[in-house]
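TL;DR need structure tokens for one chain.
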Amino acid sequence: MIGGYLPRLSVVGPFGAIVNTGLPWILGAAAGGTGLAGLAMALGGRKTVVLLVAGLMLVGGAGGIAYRFASFAEQHGTTYDLLRALDGFPPIPQPTANVVFASIDGVDLHADLWLPDGIPSDASESAPAVVFVHGGAFFGGGPGTRPLLLGALRTAGIVAVDIDYRLAPPPRWDQAPRDVLCALAWVRKEGEEAGRLRMVDPARVVIVGESAGGNLAMMGGYAAGTDAIASSCPDQGAPLVPAGVVAIAPTADLAGIWQDESIYEVPGRRFPESYTGGTPAQFPERYEAASPFRLLRASLPRTLIISGEIDRLVLIERSIALADRIRAAGAECELVVVPFAGHGSDGEPNSFADQLSQTLVRDFVLRVAPG
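>> reply
TL;DR here they are.
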């Protein structure tokens, strides 16, 4: 509880991230302990007054967090389900199909397709879609990292395409963004040529990315429709221009994160050196080219940034500065700072951040890509 309220404390602060998933258990344990301490006092245990006071403080602290969760969720058009949060191991939905959407320099790029039920096969009605870009510090991860989010989107009638891209090593700073644009081109072509995504309207697509994928979602989404970055599969045609961009804890400021020393790939090597090939001093042009700042302009797609209040890897100050720079360029940007949430907390099943992100992403898609 102390870590939740004082996340900057050394040693104790990181424990605050536990309230994202464990609040129901913390609240229940605090209430149970307080009740037992009260019973012990009633039976003559005078020294248990210390435990009773501590228990009451814990109940009050946990109750304060529960109230903040509930009120924050209400402000964003949803609710926080405390009973749902008890289940940390819900059934994991599975994608409809897995396909290879491109093969580049001998590397097959895969995508998981999440197709809603009930969409007419003749594409008489179009559906909005999400292209999801996974995280993993540019050297790990793959499709399948956010099945609950993509399953929730499918339930809402939104097609989801969970894409792959080439990972480091070797340095992929100039290749991974091109692979994302390749995926956007493939989605457009599949929709226009009555392929697997024939129900998708290219004008109703939103690109979503988490962590390193948030960087790539911004790079691809902001570069689409311009000559700033070329697709890695020009044979697929022009990439679609997304209606919106959602970046969850994005590693947008690569040089800033390197300076923060908040992420280490291996001992002695900071993020994102494997992606860029070295430090900002060695390759300043690569860091500039691999960050979305160079693409900022007034005509950007609408952007939603979701970041954790106590993110210890991509510091919240980085996300605030990113949102400020997008707005300063004249583009529309919304920043949602999730209370008591750390990096990757949206991937913790049924946690507060998971429940909230499902609603935020769904509502943003339906808002910027309406039928």
